[in-house]
Structure of Zinc finger PHD-type domain-containing protein:
Amino acid sequence: MLPPRPSGLPSSLFLASSDPRASTDNHDPRMNSDQNRESPAESATSRDTWPVIDAATQVKLENQKAEDGYYEQSVTHQPASANKFSLLDIAREQVDIISERMYLLPNEYLEELKGRVRGMLEGNGGSQQRDEFLFLQRLVQSRSDLTAKTLVKAHRVQLEILVAINSGIQFFLHQSMNLSQTVLIEVFVYKRCRNIACQSQLPAENCHCEICTNRKGFCSLCMCVICNKFDFEVNTCRWIGCDSCAHWTHTDCAIRDKQIGTGPSRVNGLGSAEMQFRCRACNRTSELFGWVKDVFQQCAPTWDRETLLRELTVVSKIFRLSENTRGMQLFWKSEELIEKLKAGVEETTACRIILTFLQELEMDSSKSSEAGNNGRMIPPQEACNRIAQVVQEAVQTMEIVADEKMRMLKKARQALETCDHELEEKAKKVAELKLERQQKRLQIDELESIARLKEAEADMFQLKADEARREADRLQRIALAKSGKSEEDYASSYLKQRLSEAEAEKQFLFEKIKLQDQGSRSSKRNDIGDTSQELYTKIQEILKSV
């Protein structure tokens, strides 16, 4: 029942569970419906994101009507105009009315509506946006008028939004989604699997078991019987398939739900306890050692280190409580290889070791069964064949161990050579650093001598500057003294000149007065011009004498 690994799957889309018992699943859809659908590994992922509709949240949303009014106002926080509407209108109004109005709206607004739902599914808005989405989902799932007959009248975008809200899968809003309207309606009314990579008609393979009949939207080909989730895990021990009804269960869910435990072996009626898985769908058991052996033989050669480490961890969880020798040995070997992988052992070596170990356990179990089968004698030829087979297996084991030892020796030699090379490089670097240190020391000494020389020059220039300053002060005092003396001489000469002029003016006035007196005495003189001429001549002489 091991499925082939599907081709590349995108990892940027999310989903929310439409089942109140299941949480939201990360979802990456694929359009390939021709793949073998025997395994849930070809489905969407079951990693928990949001919104998670647990029982407490469901009761709270159903019992508190006041909160419904709050969420209703929150969803319609962008008021709709006469021609436009909100997500709340799509969730609660009649299909035909909303469809008619959608045909009148531009494609940009319709894409905006789809973008709002995508934002809610991505969870970027926090708990408030999560509660808004849960309110819309509960409102859509509570409507009885949303049937296949009424949804035929729905607008394409309207149907995509309703399916996305009902299923919680973001891919139904993606631009690359090219499902027909009929398929979308079947997904909405739980007649087709909501896993895009599966898309099986429900119930899958016309299964009429209680789980497939009573669980809405459950697909036995790709969903876990316990948690109702689906994921993209393939070629792995993380899923367990029932040998009887082919229903699938997560290994972690089975361990958590105590569906994995010890039970009587059905091989040759020996009755020894072995690890078994009990399917919840049919209540039948399946042995786990053969399942693990088949998975490792068919898939382990293609696993990388991380995958091999994870699968060994799952095997360790399964056989941790094993009571028989084979299961305990497998548990111990898994723990040992986990430690070796963490220590750096190559995954190819670890893969060969676990495959050889599983073969040895299977052969030991077969030998024990045959030895206990009525104590019959083994023919010599068969005994020789078995001995040769055991010797061959021992040789193979020794070759594997020898290869591992040689690989470890080669790795150690390479590490030693690397260390020697690094040591040589470090020695060269140390010598270079020493040489550079000596050069730096010489440079420092040279700089110190230059600094001392410059300091001496600075002292000399400072001395000269002081002398020049004193000489300048002396010259300034001399200049000031000379300047004061010259000013005194100038003032003295100026006063003398002014005194001479005053004396001349005084003499002029005296002569003038004297002439006037003479003129009054000799009034009879006829020639006044001669007198004035004489007076002018005398004045000029006086001035010249000054």
In short: The radius of gyration is 55 Å. Residues 392 and 441 are 72 Å apart (CA to CA). Residues 1-61, 64-80, 371-375 have pLDDT under 50 and may be disordered. DSSP finds 17 helices and five strands in the chain.
